[in-house]
Design goal:
Elements lengths: L1 E4 L7 E2 H7 L8 E3 L7 H5 L6 H13 L5 H12 L10 E3 L4 E5 L9 H16 L6 E6 L3 H10 L5 E8 L5 H8 L6 E7 L2 H13 L1 H6 L1 E3 L6 H17 L7 E6 L4 H11 L4 E8 L4 H8 L1 E3 L19 H8 L4 H14 L1 E3 L2 H8 L2 E5 L2 H15 L5 H11 L9 E5 L7 H8 L20 E4 L2 H11 L5
Parallel strand pairs: 5-15, 6-7, 6-9, 7-8, 8-16, 10-11, 10-15, 11-14
Antiparallel strand pairs: 1-2, 1-3, 4-5, 12-13
Helix pairs in contact: 3-4, 3-10, 4-5, 5-6, 5-10, 6-7, 10-11, 16-17, 16-18
Length: about 475
């Protein structure tokens, strides 16, 4: 399997090099040169398989040439052996057509664990026997940071520098990052928004001096391996609801577009996806883009669903590239225009292509709270704010009545206990395996959201190329 950049000028790479690189050197994102395609018979054969065996079959085409099937199986067994539920991502039925796909049974209680537990092992595998030392630079709106830190803490040949917006993540999210005191872990609270943090990360990748001094890579969903691992649970859920003989819709609470783009990849691979519902909060750039073609960034509004408080969705570029006949030069020009003006109109081809598979909705705070209250009262399920936004969009989506709808449950409700208690009257508690979180020592640095401050901090603590 070979990978190409969405902006057309970076060299093609194999899976190993794409994983270690993260962002393409031309500023683009890597995607497979072509999508692997499963037959209905191959999809039907996934029925009854464990999550690990499903993962091996779904991901095998993407890692071809870099990992054998046995090596991939070993990595998946180790990654998902740390989850607290034997199904890894279990389905829960809410009513006659609505289901939750619980993605929060990993060590940091969020869907990011599904990909990042594997990514940490991939880094370790690909670094073994080399003299290369990775410098991971990431930005988090809450859950990516803790999942990435858990996955690489204490690992040799890796340093991780994780940026989060000061005061804009929940206390649990912050502490899951800042109480990991491994010497290779560096937490940075920036005085700015998640979009500021994400822009700084991209600037470091694109700065020739900085990227020339360090082997920089990414754990954000700009790293293709992240998205590849997330494709698996779309197959796992759909097969249990009747695929390939039956179409399934998915509602995805979305900020950076990575999780829902994984659903798009599953559809391109042949999974019968009736619709992908992009559920946003009031930070609704994706809803505006998909409903009217207006991809224009505004000011981030802090909400009770902080992982969705984003105005620039990095992975949207992958979709636009695929919908525009994979013309890297044209897409590069389009994205550079957006980066300069923070405003962009989707082309007719992009709008029409997206409309064939995607729907979108903007969920107001009171609608989110009502979804949490409904789930608690009618299904005995306590939802976090992000999942509630997905469920609210799912329940009012215009779909054929025979199509089951799966809402991705992206985080454990105890990560957002204040918001859950306001909506339901119930204050969820952390599982015993992380129950002492608020007794642990914290360690992090507060820095201004400037390129000079962040790169200077990393230069003092990182390991440069030998």
């Amino acid at each position: 399997m070979r990978y190409q950049s969405t902006r057309g000028t970076a060299p093609e790479l194999d899976f190993r090099d794409v994983t270690l690189a993260g962002l393409a050197r031309d500023g683009g994102l890597y995607v497979p040169v072509e999508w692997p395609r499963f037959t209905p018979e191959q999809i039907a054969d996934l029925a009854g398989l464990s999550y690990v065996e499903t993962a091996v079959r779904v991901m095998a085409p993407f890692v071809a040439g870099s990992l054998s099937e046995d090596e991939l199986r070993d990595l998946c067994t180790r990654a998902y052996g740390r989850f607290s539920h034997d199904a890894v991502t279990p389905l829960v039925q809410l009513d006659h057509r609505h289901f939750l796909l619980e993605l929060f049974h990993g060590p940091t209680l969020a869907f990011k664990d599904v990909a990042l537990q594997l990514l940490g092992l991939l880094f370790e595998k690909f670094l073994t026997g080399t003299d290369r030392h990775l410098t991971i630079v990431g930005a988090t709106s809450g859950d990516t940071g803790s999942a990435a830190i858990d996955a690489v803490a204490g690992r040799e040949k890796i340093d991780i520098f994780m940026l989060h917006p000061k005061g804009r993540v929940s206390d649990v999210q912050r502490r899951q990052m800042t109480t990991v005191l491994a010497p290779n872990v560096h937490n940075i609270a920036i005085e700015g928004s998640f979009d500021d943090a994400q822009a700084l990360v991209k600037a470091m990748f694109n700065d020739a001096d900085f990227s020339g001094r360090f082997h920089v890579t990414a754990v954000n969903s700009i790293n293709w391996a992240r998205l590849m691992a997330q494709v698996v649970y779309y197959f796992y859920a759909a097969v249990r609801l009747g695929a390939p003989a039956r179409e399934v819709a998915f509602s995805v609470p979305t900020g950076n577009f990575g999780d829902v783009f994984a659903g798009y990849v599953a559809a391109k691979m042949g999974l019968p996806v009736a619709k992908l519902i992009v559920a946003t909060n009031v930070n609704d750039i994706l809803h505006r883009a998909l409903s009217s073609g207006d991809y224009s960034a505004g000011t981030v509004t802090p909400t009770a669903a902080p992982s969705m408080d984003i105005q620039v969705s990095s992975n949207f570029e992958r979709l636009l590239f695929d919908l525009a006949a994979r013309d890297g030069a044209a897409l590069g020009e389009q994205m550079r225009g957006f980066e300069a003006s923070r405003a962009m109109r989707l082309t007719n081809a992009q709008q029409q292509g997206a409309a064939a598979l995607f729907a979108s909705d903007r969920i107001e705070p009171d609608e989110m709270a009502r979804a949490m209250a409904w789930a608690c009262s009618n299904t005995n399920q306590v939802l976090d704010p992000h999942t509630a936004i997905g469920l609210a969009a799912a329940r009012r989506a215009d779909l054929a009545p025979h199509v089951p709808v799966v809402t991705l449950a992206t985080a454990h409700p105890a990560k957002f206990d204040d918001a859950v208690e306001r909506a339901t009257g119930i204050r969820p508690t952390l599982p015993p395996r992380v129950g002492d979180l608020f007794e642990r020592e914290e360690r992090y640095d507060v820095l201004p959201a400037t390129f000079e401050a962040i790169t200077g901090f990393i230069a003092e603590r990182g390991t440069p190329k030998s």
